[in-house]
Every structure is written in structure tokens, then in C-alpha cells.
Design a protein that fits this description.
It comes from Salicibibacter cibi. This protein has 552 residues and is α/β, with parallel strands linked by helices. Helix 3 runs parallel beside helix 4, helix 3 crosses helix 15 and helix 13 runs parallel beside helix 20.
Length: 552
């Protein structure tokens, strides 16, 4: 079957042709005059849905959330420097989350470059540390080559955001274009020598542990991870905000290594004599400030990106491989032992934690209601905020691919990411969890969800403060509070003004009834949960507790 062909068309038309080759179905944007030629080409086709946002940050988060939910590259378009810088927070999120994202950025005309033209930014210099790659297309004939390269780079190795700069006049040029096949993601497998070394290190171990990161999901290896852990009876720990890699009720799942990780979990990790790191960069949060892996522990690090292996800790065995291929190979190998007793030690500690009753706060009541009432296929998105400590402590995810959260802790992420996920999976209930600070940053995308018929439920934990920062203030400068208080906002009325359902609740009982209504309505719903009178600032921790931490 022929996969290469030629067509004469404009640069703008060729951009859309490349998107169609790569199977793009949604593009998220705030329109700009710098890429009108691309918008015009989109108007003449029916396979790609253009989603128009209220802010480039919302467009970027929506594209990133869509990519996480779908496993496909998210596609975002923004105009020149002003649009690009608004989208930069989402670009940074995609970089730290290893999310495939292609961002098309309008650029000033070629003859204006270097003159500080209107809204001009040198994207290569300005975004060097935020993006996996940046590309500027100055010759329309090279559009297919460079755009298809962008899709390939965004998806292969360690995925990430690729920026494509589009000078406005180049998009109008016509040329004979040569198009190639869609990007292919290589799936390297471990060599026999590497598999034999893996078996040797594993069989020498008495207390192995798996720490699993986003690479497992990116390679579609969730089932392979479960089968590997079951066969060898090895405890599985999820990296920061990756706890949906395996059913949290599974006998091999023993916890989530993120912010505020349980002390017993950290203790067991440090007791392990072999750490098997799968598709994780062992980030600051996952590694507990880069203190988790000790010199006396053996480390096997497996990742599809050679630059990730050894970036933080030098491994005893580093394997460049697709995680699904690797785990399938390691499941097939024969070991003369399992680690059931060690697994049970770790599992019992985890069970003692999750079986403890929560605190008496409204946060506990809301999260417990979500856990008990949401259907198994529900998908949660997470913003930034201390309410997440209740989610981590009380909500055990029931299936893989049911949680989306930014590893960089970006505020404003939850709502637009939920809408992006809903556009990919309209049959699944999608719930955005937000603090009032983060929600206010992108709440205008409620209107986008209404216009695009992508109904989500957004729960706003409204404590009228930047709670995470307040917590740290009380820990380090007790009772010396500045800059963290917020004013009163009626989020329910604001939601109604944009066409959504809006509710205000002040009790657990009120939330339960409201959630049932939201699940049945089929319409975007914002639930404003009043938490401003709560003494709690984190799960089981009051502000007074934080002050005592400093004094002790």
C-alpha cells in the first residue's frame, strides 16, 4: 500500500493535511490572525473538530488532558508571543508529565523576524527549557517534513511537547508537497542478556519493590504490570500522581509515593533491597526530595528514553525498552521463588492506613461520597490544592486510566483537562476536583464545555485561601499569614451565568444529594463546597497542628 504522495497546496492546507495523516480528531485553540490560513483549511474539512477556548492556558490544559485520556498527541494552536506565553503553563505541564503535545504557534512574517515585530517571540530561545523540541518552518515546501517530524518527536522516546512556529506569510505560499506515513512509535524489547541480568538481580533479592511511573501508561502496559506483579508476588508502588496504573484494591498495590507519602510506605521502600523503577524519572515528589533510593539498594531502571535512566540515580541495570515489551518478557521468565511474605508485610501496612476513619471535615465527607457513589468507569481530574491530600488518603481508584493530574502541580488544570478528557470519552462520567484558587484561573472554560457539549462535574473546595501556601506558612512562619487569603465568590451563580448548573453546599448530606442530581443531569455542573470555616488545612491536619510542627 502506497503511503507517500504529493499534492500542490498552500502551507496552511498542508498543516491540516498532516494532521489528518496523523489521525488528529480535535484541535484546541484561541484563534489568532497569524494562522488564519490554517483555520481556513480546517473549515474545508470534517474529520477534525476545532474546539475554541476562552484562554490559551485553558486550550493547552484541554489538549494535554485529552492526550492523557486518549494516549494520542494533543494538538493546540495559539497566536505569536502573547498566545504562546499564555499557553506556556500547559507546555511546561506536558513536559514534566511526558505528555505528547504538538503546539502550532503563529509567527510574524519572515521579513519581520528579528525586528521585534508585533507580538514577536523567538520560540526556540524562549521555550528551550519548556519544550522537548521547537521547529520553525520558513519554507512551505518543508511543511510535511517538519510537521510530521513534530508528531514523531512528540510521541517517541520520552514523549513531550513540540512547538511548531508558523510564519504568517509562509502559510499562504503554495508548493508541491510530499507527504509521508503517520508517525510510528518504536517498541524496543530487552535483550536476552538484559533479561538474564534482571532475573539474576531479582533472584538475589529478598525484598524487591516496584515503583511505577507514567511510562507504564504511555506504553499501554497496565495489564502487563498487573500480570508481572501477580506472578512474582512483588509489591507495587505508584509514582507521584500515577496511582491509577493499577486497581488500588489489588493485592499487590501498596501505596502512592507522592507528596505527604505515608511514613510506613517510605519505611518499607527503604527496607527494600531491590528497587525496580518502571517508566519513572524518579522525580522530586516521587523520590521524596531525592532521598528515597539508598546506596545499599540495588536499582533496576527501565525506560524507553535512555536519557531518563541514571539521570537521578545510577542503576545497577539500566534497560532501554518499551514497558509493555519489557514486562511481558519478565513475566515469562522463570524464577525459583516469589516474595509473598514480604508483599503481605507491605500490604498490611497499606490496609491499616486506608481502613482508618477519616477526619470530621467536610472534605472527608465529600471524598467518601465520591468514592461510594461514582460509577467505576468515572474519570477524575485533579487541580492543585491541599484538598488532594483527602483524595490521596480516602479515594482508592478502582481501575486503570481513571485519574489525570499534573505532575508539576499547575493551578487551573482540573476543569479544562476534564473537558478534554470528556471530548475523548463522552460515555464516561468525568469529575474535576479543584480548589477555589485553581478553579478561578480557568473557570471560563465552563462556557467551552457547554458550547462543545462536553458535560463535566466540577467540585470546588472553597476555603477562600491558597491553602497549600497557607499550610507551609503555618509550618515555617506560624500565625504570620500574608498573601494567602482570598475573597468571597459565588461560583454557583457564575456557573449558571455561563449556562451550567450551579449548586452551593455546606454539609456532607447536602453534597450527597447534589452529586446524585449532577450525575443524572447530563449537563455541566459546578458544585461550590463551602470549606472556609474548616480548621483543617490538610488530611487529618488542622492549622494548629501545622503550627505545632514548627514549634516541635
Amino acid at each position: 500500500m502506497k503511503t507517500r504522495y504529493q499534492k500542490t497546496m498552500s502551507g496552511g492546507e498542508a498543516i491540516v493535511e498532516c494532521m489528518q495523516i496523523e489521525g488528529v480528531e480535535h484541535v484546541f485553540t484561541v484563534p489568532g490572525e497569524s494562522f488564519l490560513a490554517v483555520l481556513d483549511a480546517l473549515e474545508h474539512q470534517t474529520s477534525i473538530r476545532l474546539v475554541v477556548n476562552r484562554h490559551e492556558g485553558g486550550a493547552g490544559f484541554m489538549g494535554e488532558g485529552y492526550a492523557k485520556a486518549s494516549g494520542k498527541p494533543g494538538v493546540v494552536m495559539a497566536t505569536r508571543g502573547v498566545g504562546a506565553t499564555n499557553a506556556s503553563i500547559a507546555i511546561h505541564t506536558a513536559y514534566q508529565d511526558s505528555t505528547p503535545l504538538v503546539v502550532f504557534l503563529g509567527q510574524v512574517q519572515r521579513e519581520f523576524r528579528g525586528r521585534e515585530g508585533f507580538q514577536e517571540v523567538d520560540f526556540d530561545r524562549g521555550f528551550h527549557d519548556l519544550a522537548k523540541d521547537t521547529i520553525e518552518i520558513t519554507d512551505a515546501r518543508r511543511v510535511p517534513e517538519l510537521v510530521q517530524k513534530a508528531f514523531r518527536v512528540a510521541q517517541t522516546g520520552r514523549p513531550g511537547p513540540v512547538l511548531v512556529s508558523l510564519p504568517e506569510d509562509m502559510l499562504k505560499d503554495e508548493a508541491l508537497m510530499t507527504f509521508g506515513p503517520a508517525a510510528h512509535k518504536p517498541k524496543p524489547a530487552p535483550s536476552k542478556e538484559e533479561t538474564d541480568k534482571f532475573r539474576e538481580l531479582l533472584q538475589q533479592s529478598k525484598r524487591p519493590v516496584v515503583i511505577a511511573g507514567g511510562g507504564v501508561q504511555l506504553s499501554g502496559a497496565e495489564e502487563a504490570l498487573r500480570l508481572f506483579a501477580e506472578k512474582h508476588s512483588i509489591p507495587v508502588i505508584a509514582g507521584f500522581r500515577r496511582q491509577d496504573l493499577i486497581d488500588n484494591h489489588h493485592p499487590n498495590y501498596v501505596g502512592h509515593m507522592g507528596l505527604g507519602a505515608a511514613r510506613s510506605l517510605v519505611k518499607h521502600f527503604q527496607e527494600a533491597d531491590l528497587v525496580i523503577a518502571l517508566g519513572t524519572r524518579l522525580s522530586e515528589a516521587t523520590s521524596q526530595d531525592y532521598t528515597l533510593v539508598g546506596w545499599e539498594q540495588s536499582l533496576i531502571h527501565i525506560d524507553v528514553d535512555p536519557n531518563t535512566i541514571g539521570k537521578v540515580y545510577a542503576p545497577d541495570l539500566g534497560i532501554v525498552a518499551d514497558l509493555k515489551m519489557a514486562l511481558e518478557a519478565f513475566t515469562e521468565m522463570i524464577c525459583n521463588q516469589t516474595w509473598e511474605e514480604w508483599l503481605q508485610t507491605c500490604k498490611q501496612s497499606f490496609d491499616r492506613i486506608v481502613e482508618k476513619p477519616g477526619d470530621d471535615s467536610i472534605y472527608t465527607s465529600v471524598v467518601e461520597t465520591l468514592y461510594n457513589r461514582l460509577p467505576e468507569e468515572a474519570l477524575l481530574t485533579n487541580d492543585a490544592g491541599n484538598y488532594a491530600t483527602w483524595v490521596n488518603g480516602l479515594f482508592r481508584l478502582k481501575r486503570p486510566n481513571s485519574f489525570i493530574g499534573p505532575a508539576n502541580g499547575a493551578m487551573g488544570y482540573g476543569l479544562p483537562a476534564a473537558v478534554g478528557a470528556k471530548l475523548f470519552a463522552p460515555e464516561r462520567p468525568v469529575v474535576a476536583l479543584c480548589g477555589d484558587g485553581g478553579f478561578m484561573m480557568t473557570m471560563q472554560e465552563v462556557e467551552t464545555s457547554i458550547r462543545e457539549d462536553a458535560p463535566v462535574i466540577c467540585i470546588v473546595f472553597n476555603n477562600q485561601m491558597y491553602g497549600t501556601i497557607r499550610m507551609h506558612q503555618e509550618m515555617h512562619y506560624p500565625e504570620k499569614v500574608i498573601g494567602t487569603g482570598l475573597g468571597t465568590v459565588d461560583f454557583a451563580k457564575m456557573a449558571e451565568a455561563m449556562g451550567a448548573n450551579g449548586y452551593t453546599v455546606e454539609s456532607g448530606e447536602g453534597f450527597r444529594a447534589t452529586l446524585e442530581n449532577a450525575l443524572q443531569s447530563g449537563k455541566t455542573t459546578v458544585i461550590d463546597v463551602k470549606c472556609d470555616d474548616e480548621p483543617y488545612v490538610a488530611y487529618r491536619k488542622t492549622i494548629d497542628d501545622m503550627r505545632k510542627t514548627f514549634r516541635s
